[in-house]
Q: What sequence folds into this?
């Protein structure tokens, strides 16, 4: 067995939100035995480990192959969000440092009177967003609409589109598009 069965078990139990006492009760192992296993002071037999894992539930194979450590940054402070906007428009991209991003998730800010440019934008994928504050005029193909707080959009980005803030205050929205844009 792996040298760190106890550490893996503790991480998995914590990840699943199960207390040590609850897991001990579920699998019929004493709390002190489970504690000693998690501390690495006792190595469980294969049958004991299976009994514990059945109570989580997870197979022995999945237990040893499950990646319990994230290799990528997971949490971001506000000042760690990359600004990939241009002109007055601010696009704060979450996860810009992730090489294998599958989507672009952003907090967008459009000051009063700003826009994405005179030219319509088109690219493969989809985009969705929710307006948090202010208002934004979105033109998608021949359709145009002004959206306010709580309103949302979702469209195929291969249709030419443009964003413009016609209001007197800044507009903030959260958006997501696929595939991930490379900036």
A:
């Amino acid at each position: 067995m792996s040298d760190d069965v106890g550490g893996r078990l503790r991480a998995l139990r914590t990840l699943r939100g199960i207390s040590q006492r609850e897991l001990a009760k579920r699998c019929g192992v004493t709390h002190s035995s489970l504690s000693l296993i998690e501390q690495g002071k006792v190595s469980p037999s294969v049958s004991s480990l299976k009994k514990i894992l059945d109570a989580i539930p997870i197979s022995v194979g999945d237990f040893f192959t499950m990646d319990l450590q994230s290799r990528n940054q997971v949490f971001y402070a506000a000042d760690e969000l990359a600004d990939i906007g241009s002109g007055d428009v601010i696009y704060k991209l979450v996860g810009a440092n992730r090489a294998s991003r599958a989507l672009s998730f952003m907090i967008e800010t459009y000051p009063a009177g700003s826009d994405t440019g005179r030219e319509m934008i088109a690219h493969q994928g989809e985009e969705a967003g929710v307006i948090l504050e202010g208002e934004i005029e979105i033109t998608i193909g021949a359709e145009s609409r002004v959206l306010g707080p709580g309103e949302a959009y979702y469209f195929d980005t291969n249709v030419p589109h443009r964003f413009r803030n016609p209001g007197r205050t800044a507009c903030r929205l959260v958006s997501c598009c696929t595939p991930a844009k490379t900036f």
About this structure: Residues 82 and 102 are 17 Å apart (CA to CA). Strands lie at 82-83, 90-94, 104-110, 126-133, 136-140, 143-147, 152-156, 161-164, 171-178. The chain has a mean pLDDT of 91.
